[in-house]
Amino acid sequence: MPDPTAAGGEIQIVVLQVGHELYGAPIRDVREVVPAESYRITPIPRIPRYIRGVTNLRGRVIPVMDLRMRLGFTPGPVTRKTRIAVVETEASGTVGMIVDGVSEVVRLPVRTIEPPPEDRTDGSLAFVQGVARLGDRLVALLDLHRVLTREDRRPAIEGGRHGAAV
């Protein structure tokens, strides 16, 4: 759950669209958002399916994951609206997350954030740390530390350093 003392009882999130659903990522962890069509992603063998590969972001090789697949959805097409949200956490480093769109940056009062519903046995809520209302829609707040595990990042980077054309 977000720190209730942060920013006077508010958190600021970037609203990510994944399919027809909205997810929130803490703005402090989002470095930038770039059009997915502008970056070539080089596939890397023997990594989890949701890791699409690596890309060259201004001279720096970073792994790129498909957030749809990571959350258990089927992959979607890359369109004009598809974005790569470049996120960075202390535990996981820098990772690109393919999302269907980025709609806005909003401030949410911490008191309006509710815990996620009880997780089903399939673990589908493992990456959600809370739920908030945004107008008439719900936004699931992502736990980026769970989404971006170190184990997922290492193979893509190692593969990117050992001969992948980026």
TrEMBL record:
SUPFAM superfamilies in alphabetical order: CheW-like
Every CheW-like domain range: 10-153
A biological process from GO: signal transduction
GO CC terms, sorted: cytosol
Signal sequence extent: none
PANTHER family reported in the protein's UniProt record: CHEMOTAXIS PROTEIN CHEW (PTHR22617:SF23), CHEMOTAXIS SENSOR HISTIDINE KINASE-RELATED (PTHR22617)
Protein name in UniProt: Chemotaxis protein CheW
Origin species: Caldinitratiruptor microaerophilus
UniProt lineage: Bacteria, Bacillati, Bacillota, Clostridia, Eubacteriales
